[in-house]
Design brief:
This protein is of the alpha/beta class. The protein is built from twelve helices and ten strands. It folds into two domains: 207 residues, Spore Coat Polysaccharide Biosynthesis Protein SpsA, Chain A; 95 residues, no CATH class.
């Protein structure tokens, strides 16, 4: 029997971590289970570790494919896996996090119930809450039930681990942007909402343990990654400008959100003693809205200065302004 969801994990130089993640997936209570592991040009023993693990765990109810993708970057690795997916839905996970054993059983139930409801369109994108943290302390990642791209721009509520995609729909909207080195899930979340998915929610509980550390895929610091995040914001700006079905109000709201998010990033970089990066984000904000209204300009400066002084929760204020 074919499962409803395939899991894809990109991995690069995680020989000491990947088995921990894979063991958490195989502990899932749900079968059958299909898993694609995409080695992204590892220079350590990651590929052989994955091959050995796959050989030990393959069974009639557990399909494990180890794929190689030489093009650098998690988006290229994820797309390499996506091209092979045969199931109706696809889910992406990272190589240094812990998978919840009840996740697949829960989401497949939600997706099947949705498909069987004649009053509902088939779900294009399913949102699930996830837990993240470091040093053993986990909290549920902030989120809200909103289908607005402007909210995603400010809050990053749609992350890699919180999105389950209908496979064909993800392919239709362009899959992962392989130009981007960081914040690819943020940009994909923006682009997904701009394409007006039938968005479903599974928010009764939270899942997984997403670990934040200096070498994690999620990342912890901005100062040494600001150029990559800025490129993602430039792509998102193009997404907003070229979106076909936005109303004038929706487009204006998205542009305000990009402006405010840029000012918050500028503040973070000042806090991390990177004035060059902060100025680059200020310049980007001018590209987004060349002549902001006086209130918007004032709020942008307030948020930048607040974050620079180590203020927290600026996105909550910005959320109210879009």
């Amino acid at each position: 029997m074919k499962p409803l969801v395939t899991i894809i994990i990109p991995v690069r130089n995680r020989a000491s971590l990947i088995t921990w993640t894979l063991d958490s997936i195989v502990a899932s209570t749900h079968r059958p289970l299909w898993l694609f592991i995409v080695d992204n040009g590892s220079t350590d023993e990651t590929k052989s570790v994955c091959d050995d693990w796959a050989n030990r765990h393959r069974s009639s109810t557990l399909r494990v494919d180890v794929i190689e993708e030489p093009k650098a970057g998690a988006p290229a690795a994820r797309n390499a896996g996506l091209r092979r997916v045969e199931t109706r839905y696809v889910y992406f996970f990272d190589s240094d996090d812990r998978f919840s054993s009840d996740f697949l059983e829960d989401i497949e139930r939600v997706l099947r119930e949705n498909r069987e409801n004649p009053a509902e369109s088939e779900c294009d994108l399913l949102f699930v809450p996830v837990r993240q943290g470091k040093n053993g302390s986990m909290r549920v990642r902030d989120h809200e039930k909103s289908d607005r791209a402007a909210v995603q721009i400010i809050s990053s509520m749609l992350s890699t681990h919180s999105m389950v995609f209908r496979t064909d729909w993800l392919r239709q909207i362009g899959a992962w942007d392989e130009r981007l080195t960081i914040w690819q899930d943020w940009e994909l979340g923006v682009r997904a909402l701009l394409n007006r998915p039938h968005l479903c929610w599974a928010t009764e509980k939270s899942y997984h343990e997403i670990l934040l550390h200096e070498d994690s895929i999620t990342g912890a610091s901005l100062v040494d990654r600001w150029e990559g995040t800025l490129e993602s914001m430039r792509v998102a700006l193009e997404d907003v400008r070229t979106a076909k079905d936005l109303t004038k109000h929706e487009r204006r709201s998205c542009l305000r959100a990009l402006y405010l998010r840029a000012m918050i990033q500028a503040g973070r970089l000042l806090r991390e003693h990177c004035p060059m990066g902060s100025q680059a984000y200020m310049n980007y904000a001018k590209d987004v809205i060349g002549h902001p209204t006086k209130p918007l300009r004032m709020w942008g400066m307030v948020l930048r200065n607040y974050v620079a002084r180590r203020g927290r929760g600026a996105w909550r204020v910005a959320r109210q302004l879009v």
